[in-house]
Design brief:
This protein has 233 residues and is α+β, with helices and mostly antiparallel strands. 30% of the residues lie in helices and 16% in strands. Strand 2 (28-34) and strand 3 form a beta hairpin.
C-alpha cells in the first residue's frame, strides 16, 4: 500500500478542501488524485508557518524527515509523508490523511493497557527525534486500530528540547525489539536527511540514537527544562 500512497502523494493533482481547525500554522485538508486513485491528505505549506524563535522556517520539511526516520526504524509510526514543490500554496508537506477516532488521544489511549507497547514506541521515537511538541492529540487511533504519531514538525533540533505528554514510562528499559531499528539509525547519517534537515541536525540524530543504545532507558522529565508542551491536548 505504501508505494501506491507515495505515488499518489508525489504525482497527484492537489485540490484544497478546507483548513484544519485548531492548527497553529496554516494546515489544510486536501484531496489528491492520480491515475484514477483519490485520497485525502494533510497539506502544510511553508508560507503558512508562523515564525518561531527556536526553529528555522521550513518546519514542514521536518514532517517528511520524521516519516523517513520512522521508515528507517521500521516502526510504521508516521503516515506516509512527502515534500511537494508544486502544491497549490507553494512548497510544503503532504501526509496521508488518517481516518481516526478523534475523541481518542494519548490520555484516553493510556487507559487501555493494550495500547501501552505502541505508546512506548512513540516515547522512544520522540526521544530520538528530540520532539519538542508531542501533545496528547498527536497520537491518533486509526479506524484499523493502528496508533499513529502525527505533527512531528518541531523535532530534530541540535539542542535538547524534548517536550512531551508521554512520561508515564519513565525509567523503563527501551523495549528490546526496538533496538535493532535504533542500531540502523545509529550506524550513520541517512543520506536522505541531508537535504531536508539543517546542518548538524542529522548528526545530532545519530548521536541520540547511539546514546539510547548505550543507555537504553526512557528518561524522566528534566528538572531544569520545560518538559510538557502547551496545550497538553
Amino acid at each position: 500500500m505504501s508505494a501506491t500512497v507515495l505515488g499518489v502523494l508525489s504525482s497527484g493533482e492537489v485540490q484544497v478542501e478546507g483548513r484544519m481547525p485548531w492548527s497553529s500554522n496554516n494546515t489544510f485538508l486536501v484531496s489528491v488524485c492520480h491515475d484514477g486513485r483519490e485520497m485525502g491528505a494533510i497539506y502544510k505549506p511553508g508560507r503558512g508557518e508562523r515564525p518561531l524563535w527556536d526553529f528555522p522556517h521550513g518546519v514542514y520539511q521536518r514532517e517528511a524527515a520524521a516519516w523517513e526516520v520512522s521508515e528507517i526504524l521500521g516502526w510504521g509510526l508516521v503516515p506516509e509523508t512527502i515534500l511537494r514543490q508544486d502544491a497549490p500554496l507553494g512548497p510544503g508537506s503532504l501526509q496521508r490523511f488518517v481516518d481516526a477516532d478523534f475523541s481518542e488521544h494519548y490520555f484516553t489511549l493510556l487507559e487501555n493497557a493494550a495500547h501501552h507497547d505502541r505508546l512506548r514506541e512513540i516515547a522512544v521515537f520522540d526521544l530520538l527525534l528530540n520532539n519538542a511538541d508531542r501533545k496528547s492529540g498527536h497520537c491518533l487511533l486509526g479506524s484499523d486500530g493502528h496508533i499513529w504519531a502525527i505533527d512531528n514538525g518541531l523535532s530534530f533540533h541540535v539542542e535538547p528540547k524534548l517536550r512531551t505528554v508521554i512520561w508515564d514510562f519513565a525509567g523503563e528499559a527501551v523495549p528490546e525489539h526496538l533496538l535493532e531499528g535504533i542500531e540502523r539509525l545509529a550506524a550513520g547519517v541517512p543520506a536522505v536527511l541531508r537535504g531536508i534537515l539543517d546542518d548538524g541536525e542529522p548528526e545530532a540524530l545519530v548521536r541520540r540514537a547511539r546514546a539510547v543504545l548505550s543507555h537504553p532507558e526512557l528518561p524522566a522529565p528534566h528538572p531544569e527544562r520545560r518538559p510538557y508542551p502547551w496545550p497538553l491536548v
